[in-house]
Specification:
- With 226 residues, the chain is mostly beta strands.
- It folds into 2 domains: 140 residues, no CATH class; 41 residues, no CATH class.
- It has 3 helices and 16 strands.
- Strand 9 and strand 10 form a beta hairpin.
Length: 226
């Protein structure tokens, strides 16, 4: 089973933004395109060993002194606990109370084509009280394009959303799903509280017809119950 990532702390932006948005149905305004096909199949042959790989939260790194440290998206008070980049010995305990250095286990492996997309191998999965599954991939400093999927009563809706930091006046662009997309879900795994799914989704690019927008790969993630 994939490991959980532990409790998130302040400054873990994508986790907090994702959960808050999902719980408050912040995507109710979206106008979806085509729907994708949905199949419940046996995906036991699909390799999800990527779920054993992990990354530190954004801004966390091992410094030249062998200490797990933080730079960038960090609580401001921690900078007083370092001298020339080294965490002061007497401040170590308090430092790690403030900074989340937990291992973030990967929950997605995908081939992605989108604007302003870096490396973000995480997919959050939430099941609402009415049974609706909401999937959303992560954003980070280098990734401003993310996938949002809604599965309800056998119907799959999906969009890609670009929160551009460069060339959009309103900072947001929505790409609608093209016809022919598919999602396959392992029914046995979902009964155990995890989502193992294979997806192949292409989206309309109204900005540049010559540039494809797509998300293809696997997700293996614990399902958060709302």
């Amino acid at each position: 089973m994939p490991r959980t990532n532990g409790g998130s702390k302040p400054y873990r932006i994508w986790i907090m933004r994702t959960v808050v948005c999902l719980l408050n149905l912040c995507f109710s305004y979206l106008v979806y395109g085509q729907t994708a096909s949905l199949q419940y199949v046996d995906l036991s042959q699909e390799d999800v060993s990527f779920s054993n790989e992990w990354s530190y939260p954004e801004g966390i790194f091992v410094n030249e002194y062998g200490q797990v440290s933080c730079d960038g998206l960090c609580p401001p008070e921690i900078y007083q606990m370092k001298i020339s980049g080294k965490i002061i010995k007497d401040s170590l305990e308090r430092f790690y109370e403030l900074v989340d250095t937990s291992h973030q286990y990967h929950s997605m492996k995908a081939e992605v084509s989108c604007y302003e997309y870096g490396y973000a191998p995480f997919m959050k999965v939430v099941q609402q009280k009415d049974g609706t599954l909401i999937l959303e991939s992560a954003m980070n400093v280098a990734t401003h394009c993310y996938l949002h999927i809604e599965i309800k009563d056998g119907i799959v809706k999906a969009v890609v959303i670009l929160n551009s930091i460069t060339n959009r006046p309103d900072g947001k662009t929505v790409f609608k799903l093209k016809d022919g997309g598919s999602i396959k879900i392992d029914q046995k795994v979902i009964k155990k509280g995890y989502l193992k799914a294979k997806f192949d989704l292409e989206f309309e690019n109204h900005l540049e017809e010559s540039k494809p927008i797509f998300w293809k790969g696997l997700v293996y993630s614990e399902i958060i119950q709302q």
